[in-house]
Structures are given as structure tokens and as C-alpha cells.
């Protein structure tokens, strides 16, 4: 109810300003003991981890892990922070975030703006949250794509001991050539190198932190076949399906629809689901699947579960629906 009252004010502001204000308000509310939401306890065991419920926050909302405790109070079963890069970077020039309310959609070209991995780790250490925390890692924009593995290794090593799982983001459309890492020799080398380092870190810290890959919805059947085979070969623990799309299907002719960047929200639901079904068909339960993309109702979370997702994540839907979406999704899922 509170969000339905606040939304008109927030939507009167520039999207990035509204984003910052919302997080600040959440943090203040949490500080004063308000804003807590109770959701059903529906434990799910996935990747060897017991999640209190299957609904998580997707990466991108809290890039630096500065609002973990406030977001946790909303009732998420898990929270994913990032994307974080080895060095701080400002991202792409503003404006870089656009609402399309008629379609419950968002276009962003943020460009991995973040304060760097060291700051994120400090924020995680300062948080009181003891729940399931995913940390999403990427490469710096000025790191050549052929050297990307070193950036991912740096982040993996620095966040490993503070993460419940680590997500390797190679699917943002807003870092030049990043999606090249989703195919061929580049993907093989990346997964092989990160898997080997994950096992070394597991030995070093005496605990195993699952490794998860996040892919785009703009994949061909051949891409899906290849990625699935590599996930199995290198024993990657999970796959997040999907990131934002370059397609503009569902927003044609609407204001801001021609802005460059990744499209998220309701229009990506079917495209993301098609990818999810294709990966589920090929992976046959060998890799845990996390469904994300276009969830704006509880029923849609349940659909992703039916298509093979053990967990789901939300982000854009929160902006249009508010925190009640978390509870609705948990209630709708088995």
C-alpha cells in the first residue's frame, strides 16, 4: 500500500534519481525498524544451499552491496548484488535509465557503474545480513575482451569468502564486446579457468561456493546448445536465464523505445522463458536454473518454475508493482 502511494512521486523523478531515493528511503525505514515484510517460509535446496524461499533479488539494484540489510527486510529468499568490477568505474554517460510505463518495461545502459570490488567487500562485511548472498562479477570497460578472464579471476578471488554463490555476468549488452564471451573458445577458456580457481579457493577456505553463469535472452539454438554443453563439461553449478534483451518487441512506437541498451520488464518474459525451456531441455537437471526476466506477478514466477527454474529473481517488476511482488511470487510458487 505504501508503495502505491509513493510510486507517483518516484515516477515524477528521473529514473536514476528515483532509484537512488528509493534505496535511501528503504535504508532509513530499516534503520527505524519499519519496512519489514513477512513472507511464507518455503525452503528450497539448490546448488547445495538451503534457500528460505525461492524468490531472490536480481543483480543491478544494489550494485555495491550498500543496502543489503534494508533489502533483506523485504522478505527475499536471497539477494544478489553487483555487477562489480575489479576497479571502480562510472559507467556510461547519463541519462542511461529509461522507463516505459505502458509496457511495464525499462531500458538501461548503465555500463557496470560501481565502486569497485574492494568497496563491495567492505560493504558486505559491514552488513548484518546472514542470509543467502550472491555476488555478480564482471569486467572493467577498459579491459580488452581478450583479457577479460583476469578481471573475472580478480573478482572471484576477492569475493569468494563473502559470497553464498558467485555469478559470472557475460551477458550485459552495455559493455562493449562482453557478449562475445558467451561463445566459442572465449567461453571455454573463461569457464575452465574460473572452475579451476573455484576449486583451489574451496580448498583454501575449506568451503565450496557455487559458480553461476548469467546469459542473455538473445541466443540462437546453436548458442544454447554450446553453452549447455560447456556448463556440463566444466561442472558449473547454476545458470541464470536471462539478462536484458536487445530486442524491442513489445515496446515498438512507445516513448524511449529507441534508446540504446538492454530492455527488461514485462516484454522480455516470453523471450526469457523460451531460453529457459531450451536450457532445461538440454541440461536435464545437471545444472541449477534460475529464472529471471519479465516477472510482474506471482503467476509469472510460477510459470518459470514450471519451465524448469528452481529459483526466480525479480527487479524491474519491483519498480512497477512494489515489494508486495515478493510475497505474491513466494505464495504462487510450489
Automatic annotation (TrEMBL):
Subcellular location: Cell membrane; Membrane
Positions with a binding annotation for substrate: 63, 108-112, 169, 174, 243-244
Binding sites annotated in the UniProt record for FMN: 59-63, 83, 136, 169, 214, 242, 265, 294, 315-316
SUPFAM superfamilies: FMN-linked oxidoreductases
GO molecular function, one term: dihydroorotate dehydrogenase (fumarate) activity
Pathway linked to the protein: Pyrimidine metabolism; UMP biosynthesis via de novo pathway; orotate from (S)-dihydroorotate (quinone route): step 1/1
EC class: oxidoreductase
Record EC number: 1.3.5.2
PANTHER family per record: DIHYDROOROTATE DEHYDROGENASE (QUINONE), MITOCHONDRIAL, DIHYDROOROTATE DEHYDROGENASE (QUINONE), MITOCHONDRIAL-RELATED
Function, as annotated: Catalyzes the conversion of dihydroorotate to orotate with quinone as electron acceptor.
Full protein name: Dihydroorotate dehydrogenase (quinone)
Ranges where the Dihydroorotate dehydrogenase catalytic domain occurs: 44-331
Recorded catalytic activity of this chain's protein: (S)-dihydroorotate + a quinone = orotate + a quinol
Active site (record annotation): 172 (nucleophile)
Cofactor: FMN
PROSITE patterns: DHODEHASE_1, DHODEHASE_2
Amino acid at each position: 500500500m505504501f508503495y502505491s502511494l509513493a510510486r507517483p512521486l518516484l515516477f515524477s523523478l528521473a529514473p536514476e534519481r528515483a532509484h537512488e531515493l528509493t534505496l535511501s528511503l528503504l535504508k532509513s525505514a530499516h534503520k527505524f525498524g519499519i519496512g519489514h515484510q513477512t513472507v511464507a517460509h518455503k525452503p528450497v535446496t539448490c546448488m547445495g544451499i538451503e534457500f528460505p524461499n525461492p524468490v531472490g533479488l536480481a543483480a543491478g539494484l544494489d550494485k555495491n552491496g550498500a543496502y543489503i540489510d534494508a533489502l533483506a527486510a523485504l522478505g527475499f529468499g536471497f539477494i544478489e548484488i553487483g555487477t562489480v568490477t575489479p576497479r571502480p568505474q562510472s559507467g556510461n554517460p547519463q541519462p542511461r535509465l529509461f522507463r516505459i510505463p505502458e509496457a511495464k518495461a525499462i531500458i538501461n545502459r548503465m555500463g557496470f557503474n560501481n565502486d569497485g570490488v574492494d568497496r563491495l567487500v567492505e560493504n558486505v562485511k559491514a552488513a548484518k545480513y546472514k542470509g543467502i548472498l550472491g555476488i555478480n562479477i564482471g569486467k572493467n570497460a577498459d579491459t580488452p575482451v581478450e583479457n577479460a578472464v583476469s578481471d573475472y579471476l580478480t573478482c572471484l578471488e576477492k569475493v569468494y569468502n563473502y559470497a553464498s554463490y558467485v555469478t559470472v555476468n557475460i551477458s550485459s549488452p552495455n559493455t562493449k564486446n562482453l557478449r562475445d564471451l558467451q561463445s566459442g573458445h572465449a567461453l571455454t577458456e573463461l569457464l575452465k579457468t574460473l572452475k579451476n580457481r573455484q576449486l583451489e579457493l574451496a580448498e583454501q577456505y575449506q568451503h565450496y561456493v557455487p559458480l553461476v553463469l548469467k546469459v542473455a535472452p538473445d541466443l540462437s539454438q546453436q548458442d544454447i546448445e554450446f553453452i549447455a554443453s560447456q556448463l556440463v563439461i566444466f561442472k558449473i553449478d547454476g545458470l541464470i536465464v536471462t539478462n536484458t534483451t536487445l530486442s524491442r518487441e513489445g515496446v515498438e512506437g512507445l516513448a524511449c523505445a529507441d534508446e540504446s541498451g538492454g530492455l527488461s520488464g514485462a516484454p522480455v518474459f516470453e523471450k526469457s522463458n523460451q531460453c529457459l525451456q531450451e536450457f532445461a531441455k538440454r541440461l536435464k537437471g545437471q545444472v541449477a536454473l534460475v529464472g529471471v526476466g519479465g516477472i510482474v506477478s506471482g503467476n509469472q514466477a510460477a510459470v518459470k518454475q514450471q519451465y524448469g527454474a528452481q529459483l526466480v529473481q525479480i527487479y524491474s517488476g519491483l519498480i512497477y508493482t512494489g515489494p508486495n511482488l515478493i510475497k505474491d511470487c513466494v505464495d504462487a510458487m510450489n
